[in-house]
Amino acid sequence: MVNFNIYFDSNETINDRDSLFSKIVYEKEHQISGYYNLPYENRALQDSMLYIQHNQEIFKDLTHIVIIGIGGSSLGLKAIDTLLYHLPHRNDISLKFLEHTDPIKIQKSLKKIRLQTTLFIVISKSGMTIETTSLMKYCIWRYSLLESSAKKRLLIITDEHSPLQKWANDNDVYAISIQKHIGGRFSVLSAVGIVPLMLLGYKVNEILEGARILQDSFLRRNEEHILQKAIFMARNHKNLAMNILFSYSSSFHDFNLWYVQLWAESLGKIDCNGQKIGLTPISLIGSIDQHSFLQLILEGKADKTITFLGINQERYNELKIPNLSMKGLEATDFVNEIPFARLLATQQAATMRVLQEDKLPVDSIQLDSLNEKNIGALVMYYELLTSAVGCFFDINTYDQPAVERGKKILHEMLR
Fold first, then answer.
1. In what order do the strands lie in the sheet with 362-367?
2. Which of 60, 91, 121, 160 is least surrounded by Cβ atoms within 10 Å, i.e. has the fewest?
3. Per mean pLDDT, which range of 92-96, 273-277, 283-287 is the poorest?
C-alpha cells in the first residue's frame, strides 16, 4: 500500500481538476504517449519469456548483466533494482551499468566481467545515442561479441524499425522492440525495464499490477491529490520554482535520480506562448541531507516545495542502537535501545513538522514496504503527476528538443 498526503492548501476548484483530468484522458485516448497503456499490456512479459525460452543455456551460469544505455534507458531500471534488491527472490546476478563515456569509469565497471558468464544488454530507443553506440562498439570489440559463439551474450532493446534494430537483424543478434510513442524516460514499464527485471528474478507482473491499480484508481477519480498537487505546482511555478524530493532511505537514491530526469526533461520547455517554463527537481536523501540542505530550506529563500518519501519503518526494527553509555557522550543516550528504523522515521517526522511550522508547502508519500506492487504504483504516480503538470503548462511533455540541439552540436564538433 502507498499513502499520499498533502499538507498545504492547494486552493484549486473542482472545475480546475475536471479540466486537467480531461486533458490527461485525451492524451491517453489519443495515444499522445504510450506509457499509459503499458500496465495493461502483456507485450513486455511475453517478449521476456520468449527471450528466456530461446536462450536457456546462457542463464545456467550467468553472474553479470551489463546494461549499455543512458538516461531513460537505464535510470528507471537502476531505480527499481536498487529499491527491490533486498528481496529474497532476486537472482544472485550482479547488475552493472555502462552509461558514461568516462574511460576511468568504463574500465572500473568492466573489471570483473567475463564473457562466459555475462549478458550485455544494449538499450537505446533511437539506436543512435552516441554514448550508447560508442560503449556498445567498445564491448563488441573487447569481448568479440559478433563471433558466432558469443552472439547469444548480446541483447538489443530498441524502437521498432530503428537503425539499431536493423543492425541487429542484419547481424543475427537477438532484438526486442518497443513502440516509438513511448518516451525513454517513461519507458521503464516496457521491455526496457521489464526484460532485465525478469532476468533478475523480480515479480514483474506485480510491478505492472501496482501501476495498473494506481492508474485505474486515478481514472476513477480516487486519486485527486495528483491533480491538486499538479495544479498547485504549475500555478506557483514562478515563486516555487524548485521541487525537492526528500527520500528517507538510501534505497531511494537511484529512484530520486530517475525522478530528476523525468521531471526536468519533461517540464523544462518553451510553452505555446513562446515563454520558457519549467520546474527544477532537487534530490535529497534523509537523514543525510538534514545536515546540509535543510538549513537552506528553512532559512533560505522560500521558493521550494518539499515531498517526503518514506517507508513504514516498523517492518525493519531488528537493528537497534546498543545500550551503551560512553563517558562525555551521555547526552546521546536517549536513543539507546531504539531501532535505527524508528530513529530514521522520527527524523523524517521531525523535519516535516519544522517545515510545516514555517508554513512551507509539504506533502508526503509513504510506502508500507518495498515490494514490486508498491514500486509499480510509485512509478505510475510520478509519471501521471508529470503528465498532469505538463498538461497544465500546455507543453509537449514527451519531447526534448533542447537535448537534440546539443546532440547536433556534438556531431558538428567531432566530424
1. 2-6, 362-367, 304-311, 242-247, 280-285
2. 60
3. 273-277
